[in-house]
Amino acid sequence: MGDLFTTVSNWLNGILAEAGIPPEAAEWIFAVGRAFLLGVSGLLLVVFLIWFERKVVARMQDRIGPNRVGPYGLFQTLADMLKLVLKEDMVPPQADKILFHLAPVLAVIGVVGLWAVIPLAATAYGVDLNVGVLYLAATGTLGTLGILMAGWSSRNKFALLGAFRTVAQLVSYSVPAMLAMLVPVMLSGTMSLAGIVAAQDGFWFGVAAPLAALVFLIASLAEVARAPFELLEAESEIVAGFHVEYSGIRFGMFFAAEFLHAFTIGALLAVLFLGGWRGPGAAEFPTLGALYFAAKSFAGYFLLVWVRATLPRIRIDQMLDFCWKVLTPAMIVLIGALVLVNRALAGTSMWVRNGALLGVNVLVAAGVISLLSRSQSQSHAGAHGRAPGKGAQPCALAGMGDEAEAAS
Amino acid sequence: MNLGERFPQGVVRDERPGYSGWIVDSSLLPNVAQTLRREEGFDYLSSVTGVDYLPEDLFETVYHVYRTGGGPGEIIKVRTPRGRPVLPSLTSIYPGAEFQEREIWDLFGIQFDGHPDLRRILLWEGFSGHPLRKDWREPMYEEETKPFGARWPEGRRNGPPDRAFTRPADALAPGGWEADDDRALYAALENEAGGRPEALQTEFLMVNLGPQHPSTHGVFRVAALLDGETVVNLKPVMGYLHRCHEKIGERNTFPGNIPFTDRLDYLTSLSNNFGYVLAVETLMGIRPPERAEYLRVILAELTRIVSHLWSIGFLLNDLGAFFTPALYAIEERELVVDIFEAVTGSRMMCNFFRFGGLARDIDAGTVEAIRALVEERLPGKVDQLDAYLTGNEIVQARCAGVGILPREKALAYSAAGPVLRASGVPYDVRKAEPYSVYDRFEWDVACRGGCDVYDRYLVRMDEIRQSIRIIRQALRALPAGPVQTGKPQFQPRVPPGEAYGRVEGPKGELGFYVVSTGRPNPWRYHVRAPSFINLTGMAEMCRGGKVADVVAVLGSIDIILGETDR
């Protein structure tokens, strides 16, 4: 079997060398080719992702989901895309034209760009940046900028409300997301994503620091604005939020970016906390590693879809409260504790160290949960007590109930 | 209580045959209302409507007031000459009159002095005339009442043009009127809000949620004044689905209105039938046979279950739950609707009640199907919905303490149904003034004191359980026998008089005020629509909340635009 990726690249290198292209130019062609391949396959993946999400949500809702176009409805998304492409491309007359046209492009770039540094297998990645995590943070913000521009430039009140929320939500949740990403960086001692995966030999960071993984997942849900944090485009409140004025393929770009971003969160979760391509036999056969990576990413994505199909949306003030009063302090405490423990047990065996890290995570999580439940019972006084079965029973109308009973 | 003794000048008993209540002089109206509300305990203004007595050349405004403790109500009527119809507004005594007085102004042109915001409500500002006046004729006017004459009486067209077809040149936009972009509405919003935001030197944001909006449950509009995300003030704007229900109802014959009521709240057609049929049966002085009474109760309670399931599902949708709870709730609704199909032949527009009974009997198999549904399927499924939704943290965070309508305000705004009962008022027409055979069953009025969205949801949950309880008892006691008094009538004789038939519909108190002059058509046909009147308190519930709360509140009021706009 061997290493598919290395074989292919060697073969292509051979072709270029035979054609008499100097090695520097060949490297450039290679880089462009890789970027092209990653971008195109990422966007093609969206076709499948949309089908996957629709099918999963349908099953959770006791429906069948798309099943008309192609086997199991697999080509439904292609038909939908065709429709989107053929639709009239409308620009509101009052819109800020440049920003309006730029916004969906930025949104897509912000997501596709992330894939440049994600290691798909031991030998397959766009580029192994030594500041990979920093790059993720910076590129992710580009998408936020796109959303903000879309909301601002549309000259629509709903879009503007969506832009308000973008500023509040995406910027706020960057903080706990960054802090959570700091944990694997700290544990592995590198910012390179390939390095982080390499450091998870034996113990996944998700096992050593499950709380950080959870906070990363929650903050990322908010970063990609998916349920229960889809406030930017809250359909039942502000119709479609930032992209309310977009139609046709421009809307399609936001749509594709959103789905790909959600899957990217699954991929990042896999890379940062679930060992990336690691698995039995993956080190010897990178092709197998790519399969492991895909499976882990889809597991993460499935989690996102599951949450979307089951949870209602939270309100903007609650969303901000949760970020600034729960996630951020919890992560700061957790990082502080992890630093101390990791430092103190530097020389000990992997098992002792990871066990201690896990213990710290559990302790912090327990502390957060107990604080939360205490504050909740204070703020929503009675909400729990009002659940049926306990507390308020249906009350009979005074004086009238007796008559009714007598008559029956 | 004898209002006539209390107010010797200006209050006389309504002595017309078939009528009841008191005729009050318009100058005394606020005093009489004050007395009724503060001293006599008539704390609930059920309905306000007008009647145009063209032959006597006067308008009558009819107020129905009740005690929430139960018992019969009082009817007061105020007469104004058609030439100068001005009345004192009752909004300061019964704030629930606000929208209803606007409706009367809109449709009858009766002015209310002291009303805070007297604008048209169902029609647009530029509409020509006041259509419920008997001398107002629509552009396509054919005849005063149905059945209309044949269009081709002798096998050919009745002369060119096709009958008397008059359309005044300014019918749709009377002379001089220009669209003003709702300036009056926005001005009223800002006036009530009073001033600019204080903390920062910023401006309010005026947002129209609707009429095209995913969670307004139809073509409904909320004009909201926002300070960032916080709602400063809002006004519901309705009428986009106005179908001249009452005007057409007055042209229709009495039985012709039964299918017409289906279209009010199109989810609960059987409850709507019930209210109208009760009103006309009161006029006719008949009662349906026992079996029909029991079947009516069973069908009305099934309707309540259908409506509440829908409402709970879509409340969760409004909270952003992406259809999952809604689809599970709709699954159960479908089963009930299957029963409607088996019984009435139609799933939504059931048109099944008749004066003095029902259209058809129901067969044993269907009875068995209902029994299986309420005994085996529904209780478990309701518990399941309850288990998944009620304890959910996000549902609690979004609903508990949101959209507060305190007890006094709920009463003052004439809120009805689950909205009123979630505010701690155990007022249910089925218990307060039992109609049909509701007094024979053992059940409780679902009532909670949280005054918020969460308790409105819980009250609906409780009511589904209580409805199941009633249906079980009704099925057990279902007597044999006919389902129709006498032979079915195509054209029943309805004696002159007035009647107010009210039932506890799923959305709240649904009333039908019918005036007959002895002819085949009602002289006045008014619907007291709970979806419409419950909106009176909406601004109160939403002020100070967030935009997202507006949607939750709207979902918890549970409006159906077919009924709101009529």
Question: Could you explain the architecture of this structure?
Answer:
The complex is a heterodimer of chains A (408) and B (566). Chain A is mainly α and 408 residues long. Chain A contains 15 helices and no strands. Chain B has helices at residues 3-6, 29-39, 97-108, 183-193, 245-251, 258-262, 269-284, 290-318, 324-344, 364-389, 393-399, 407-412, 418-421, 429-432, 453-477, 530-533, 538-542, 547-557, 561-565, and strands spanning 11-13, 22-24, 44-53, 58-66, 74-81, 86-88, 111-113, 205-209, 221-227, 230-237, 353-354, 357-358, 497-505, 508-516, 522-528. The two termini of chain B are 35 Å apart. Chain B has 566 residues and is an alpha+beta fold. Chain B is globular, with a radius of gyration of 24 Å. The longest helix of chain B is centred in the middle third of the chain and has 29 residues, at 290-318. Chain B has a five-stranded mixed β-sheet. In chain B, strands 8-9-10 form a three-stranded antiparallel β-sheet. Chain B has a three-stranded antiparallel β-sheet with strand order 13-14-15. Helix content of chain B is 38%, strand content 16%. The chains are: A mainly alpha (408), B alpha+beta (566). At the A-B interface, helix 6, helix 10, helix 12, helix 13 and helix 15 of A face strand 8, helix 8, helix 9, helix 11 and helix 15 of B.
Write the layout of secondary structure elements.
The complex is a heterodimer of chains A (408) and B (566).
Chain A: H1 4-18, H2 23-60, H3 76-86, H4 97-112, H5 132-153, H6 157-188, H7 193-199, H8 205-208, H9 210-223, H10 235-238, H11 248-273, H12 286-310, H13 316-344, H14 350-379, H15 400-407
Helix pairs in contact in A: 2-11, 2-12, 3-11, 4-5, 4-11, 5-6, 6-7, 6-9, 6-13, 9-11, 9-13, 11-12, 13-14
Chain B: H1 3-6, E1 11-13, E2 22-24, H2 29-39, E3 44-53, E4 58-66, E5 74-81, E6 86-88, H3 97-108, E7 111-113, H4 183-193, E8 205-209, E9 221-227, E10 230-237, H5 245-251, H6 258-262, H7 269-284, H8 290-318, H9 324-344, E11 353-354, E12 357-358, H10 364-389, H11 393-399, H12 407-412, H13 418-421, H14 429-432, H15 453-477, E13 497-505, E14 508-516, E15 522-528, H16 530-533, H17 538-542, H18 547-557, H19 561-565
Parallel strand pairs in B: 2-5, 6-7
Antiparallel strand pairs in B: 1-2, 3-4, 4-5, 8-9, 9-10, 11-12, 13-14, 14-15
